[in-house]
Amino acid sequence: MDLYLWAKALHVISVIAWMAGLFYLPRLYVYHVEQQDAVPEMVPVLEVMERRLLRAIMTPAMISSWLFGLIMVGMGGVDWGAVWPWLKAASVLAMTWFHFWCAGQRTALAAGHAQVSGRGYRMMNEVPTVLMIVIVVSVIVKP
Known about the structure:
By secondary structure, this protein is mostly helical. It has one domain (3-141). 80% of the residues lie in helices and 0% in strands. It is built from 5 helices and no strands. The chain has helices at 3-35, 43-74, 84-110, 118-124, 127-141. α1 runs antiparallel to α2 and α2 packs antiparallel against α3. The longest helix has 33 residues, at 3-35. The chain is elongated, with a radius of gyration of 17 Å.
């Protein structure tokens, strides 16, 4: 049984779950902001969905992504003299910042203090896509 391959498989699974949440949560915020006046009875439903997505899926997936990623790094084999691991590391830190930004937005929305418009959340929804592209190209192409 190869520990590296297990760590890699669990890392990929965790990242997929984390990314799914990072793609979906800002979209829920768009609905939340745009429906709070038009259909106010939807707001409590959206708040439950946002909270559960963040707590039950995204945060555990983020933690396990970091855990299994660090296990692989700890096993060696990364050429830290190359550009790609630093590019990936910076992008993962940015992705983690985005996760916590989303968590802060959930708290603000639950308190009734929308800090961003629906259009702003739509734009922020592109952040994880750009970071994912940088990460995948860094790891596969190794520029």
